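Researcher: Let's run the pair from yesterday's discussion. Sequence first, then tokens, for each.
Model: Starting with the first of the pair.
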Amino acid sequence: MAAVTTTFEELFAGVPVMAILRGMSAERSVELAVRAWDLGIECVEVPVQDEAAGRVLAAVVAAGAERGKAVGAGTVTSVGRLERAVAAGAAFTVAPGFEAGVARASAAAGLPHLPGVATAGEVQAARGLGCDWVKAFPASVLGVEWFRAMRGPFPEVPFVATGGIDAGNAAAYLEAGARVVAVGSALEDPEQLSLLAELLAH
């Protein structure tokens, strides 16, 4: 299955929320992916930490293909996991940290890569390798002040806040400078769904 070539700029255009579907069955992951798409969330990520997760990713990719939605692979921390992502038809890759070899291999495979960063040095290194967008992880540990501080030296860098984000605190991270927030369990909580819909409406 060929991956859909796209960019994070296209995926996140006007939509400040990304969905992460981790550790669930293929059926449940597809169900929540559809819920995310129905809400207006374009960007869905399925981590590929093991072979079973690779099969889940493939199922969500197939569901996305029916709706014209690109699905990415998360936790891509090695070339082996990148190969699993490519085999499942992922359109982009995401990692918890920055590793130059993985970033280069993902680019070589034609997939935009979203590396995790937590320091100014990692931001510079990732941008130096052509990663236009970066993932601030773990966002809840870094805190909203980290995003405000990074806006000074890196006003042009789009950050995705990931880790410990839900519908209750997402707006604070967006206000502090994150371009996008990533949520997971919020999609399973009816009370948070209405808050997410409100966030997406702005």
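Model: Moving on to the second of the pair.
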Amino acid sequence: MARLDVNRSGEMEVFAKVVDLGGFSAAARAFRMTPSAVSKLVSRLEERLGARLVNRSTRKLQLTPEGVTFYERSVRILADLEEAERGAAASTTPRGLLRVNASVPFGRHFLLPLVPEFLARHPAVCLDLVLTDAVVDLLEERTDVAIRSGPLKSSDLVARKLGETRMVIVGAPAYLKRAGTPAAPRELERHNLLRFGYARAVEGWPLVERGTPVTVMPRGNAHASDGEALRQLALGGLGLARLAAFQVKEDLSAGRLVAVLEDFNPGDTEPIHAVFLGAGGPLPSRVRAFLDHLAAKVRLV
């Protein structure tokens, strides 16, 4: 195994230049070295390889068969290194496939509107966007960035906070007319409470009554896999749902949904993070560009 202090690519480069320019002196001028330094470098290379590469008995540089083979392979290796460096330099321009996973509500209200501008700025990026409220394994799913709501579990992922959003209990006017508008947390027991169909960090609906925290467990005749589905069920008058404020902002303004029990709302918020694999190394430029675009454009309520 080669010693770590041996600069093999540097040796190849000097040796190749000696051959290309036909001598030690010419190569020394090209590298701003002394001819003796170049000669010593080639000698050390021959000693390490255990083979003579250059015959020094004549005034004209003459390669041995081993020298010819080493020169030809060195040229190919140096060309590959140069190509690799050009490729790495080119990667500073965002390009390639970018896989992003986000919840359905966040995707609908934030990501989808931002995609055209992002891709217009970075036309060499191809975006693969998956919307699901399920928590995915970034490594297993080969996902570059995932958007996650709520408290983050300890992991090897890197997180960039995008903001926080209020939570609000809402219902359609038709449902409230039929079932009545709850005036206190205890009245939720007689209402149809729409819930998520998967485990969440906070299962119940937290409220505060007379300074005392109250948690209501949602029970109803329907649950859904994502927040957007719950919103549609609430809009359809099926029951009450507790959703992110950004998700129902337009519905509240338009009167399609009505917020209830706001006097009992504890003001709790859900943080929203962009998580990604990136600990211990630089991010691909496409990932960095996407994260910067999100941070600049996303404004949560």
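Researcher: Give me one sentence on the second I can quote.
Model: The chain has three domains: 8-90, 96-164+271-297, 165-269.
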